[in-house]
Amino acid sequence: MKKIIISVLFIGSALSLWAYGPTGHRAVSAIAQEHLNCRAKRAIKKLLGDENLVLVSTYGDDIKSDKAYDFSYTWHYVNMKDGETYLQSIKNPKGDLVTAFNHCVATLKDKSSSVEDKRFCLKILVHLVGDAHQPLHIGRAEDRGGNDIKVKWFGRKSNLHRVWDENMISSYRMSYSELAENMPKISRKVRKEWQKGDMLTWTEEMRTTTAMVYASAEQDEDLGYRYMYDYFETLRHQLHKAGIRLAGVLNDIF
Fold first, then answer.
1. Which of 51, 34, 56, 60 has its CA nearest to residue 177?
2. For the chain, which residues make up each domain, given as ranges?
3. Residues 6+ positions from 26 with CB-CB distance below 8 Å
4. Which of 7-21, 85-99, 117-131, 175-189 shows the lowest mean pLDDT across its residues?
5. Closest listed residue to residue 124, CA positions, set 200, 48, 41
6. 27 with 180: CB under 8 angstroms?
7. What's the CA gap between 53 and 33, in Å, rounded?
């Protein structure tokens, strides 16, 4: 009996470790759903059927376990050197966030695209807009977007990328719906301002935040309450902005 209890506890802790990973993407999609116009809602329903934006928001990561989708692995990020713009950077021949975003938008707007291609691109697009607002998805190639900057999170091994992907969100202990519902109210003017531009614009905009994140921690530093206090509002702002922009993109497409 003791062995069974221990196993259940271990499995439970493992599940909760992985379960928090998608929370940010789901929050972005929940925010977006609240700002879709009627035409976009109908078009999305037609493509996704019983699924919705929240449910498909993790699709871009889910398919990483299927080798048939290896071509999309590099779509989740952009690597640039410090002080370099996207246009100045050496482009990944396999594609990146900017090229993948443009491909998905073009496919969804093209009346000759198959339903299957449109459904795939919609699912990927939802995920990519979220990725584009995580500062270390616009990072440096040499440290793999902060993955090689090893830190501790409340004493446990982690890395700077993971801190921004999931550790801070997990420590905040809100569900995706609670995060979405408790975003500050913004004016129509601010919403329109956030929605201006495209992925290239937003990638360049993110560079300032990315630089701040890189400067926020040192190798092997033990991060915790103070780091949450200093940076969680920045993360929350990025989730909010991503959701508003995702809605704007989908409203424009449909």
1. 34
2. 24-253
3. 54, 57, 58, 176, 177
4. 7-21
5. 48
6. yes
7. 7
Strand order in the sheet with 150-153: 156-159, 150-153, 222-223
Architecture of domain 24-253: Orthogonal Bundle (1.10)
Distances, alpha carbon 235 to alpha carbons 15, 48, 231, in Å = 24, 29, 7
Among candidates 156, 151, 158, 139, which has minimal Cα distance to 211? 139
Question: pLDDT (tens digit, 9 = 90+) per residue, 109-121?
Answer: 999 999 999 999 9
**pTM here?**
0.90
Q: What are the tens digits of pLDDT across the range 70-85? A: 999 999 999 988 888 8
The two structure tokens encoding residue 190: 């601010």
Rounded-to-integer distance, Cα 241 and Cα 130, Å: 9
Exposure b/e, 128-158, CB count within 10 A at least 16 = b: bbbbbbbbbbbbbeebebbeebebbbeeeeb
Please count the residues of the chain. Answer: 254
